[in-house]
Amino acid sequence: MADTQYILPNDIGVSSLDCREAFRLLSPTERLYAYHLSRAAWYGGLAVLLQTSPEAPYIYALLSRLFRAQDPDQLRQHALAEGLTEEEYQAFLVYAAGVYSNMGNYKSFGDTKFVPNLPKEKLERVILGSEAAQQHPEEVRGLWQTCGELMFSLEPRLRHLGLGKEGITTYFSGNCTMEDAKLAQDFLDSQNLSAYNTRLF
C-alpha cells in the first residue's frame, strides 16, 4: 500500500451542507441568481480538472460513468462480489469523494497527490465488470486505460504539483519554467488580470 501521506483515510469526514433554510429566505430574484451562479460555478469548475493533472479529467469522467450506472449501494454489492473487502470499497468511495472535493487527484491544499487505498487490480475488476462497462464497454475501458496507471503512480515527479522536474501540472505547459510563470504573472498583474482559470503555454 502507498505511504499514508498519499492516501485519504477511510474515516475522513463527509459533511452535508443543508442550505434549505437560507435558500427559503431569499427573494424569488435572489433564488434565481443563486441557482444560476451555482450552475455557472459547477460548469466553470470543470476547468480545474484540466488544469490539475493529465489524468484528472479522465478519472472524473470514469467515476461519473460508474456512479451514473449504479448507485453506491449497487456498486458496493458488485465490488464485494469482485473480491473487495468492506474497507477497500470504503477506500474507493473516499477516493471518489476526494476527487470530487478537490476537482482532481491532488489535494487542493498542499498540492499533494492522493491515490486509491486499495490494490489497482481489484479496482480494475470493479470498473471493468461494472454496469457502466456493460453499457459503454469501449468508453469505460478507454478511460481506464488512459488513467489507471497514472491514478496509482507515485513516481517522484508525480507526487506533487509543480513545474518541470519539481512536479506535474497542466496549468502550465510541460516546457514552462518558474521564470516563465513569473513573467506571465507579472504581465497579468500589470493588466489587473487574474491567472485563475487560465492555462499557460
From TrEMBL:
Signal peptide: none annotated. Keywords: Hydrolase, Metal-binding. Pfam families: Peptidase_M49. InterPro entries: Peptidase_M49. GO terms for molecular function: hydrolase activity; metal ion binding. This is Dipeptidyl peptidase 3. It comes from Homo sapiens. The lineage of its organism: Eukaryota, Metazoa, Chordata, Craniata, Vertebrata. The gene is DPP3.
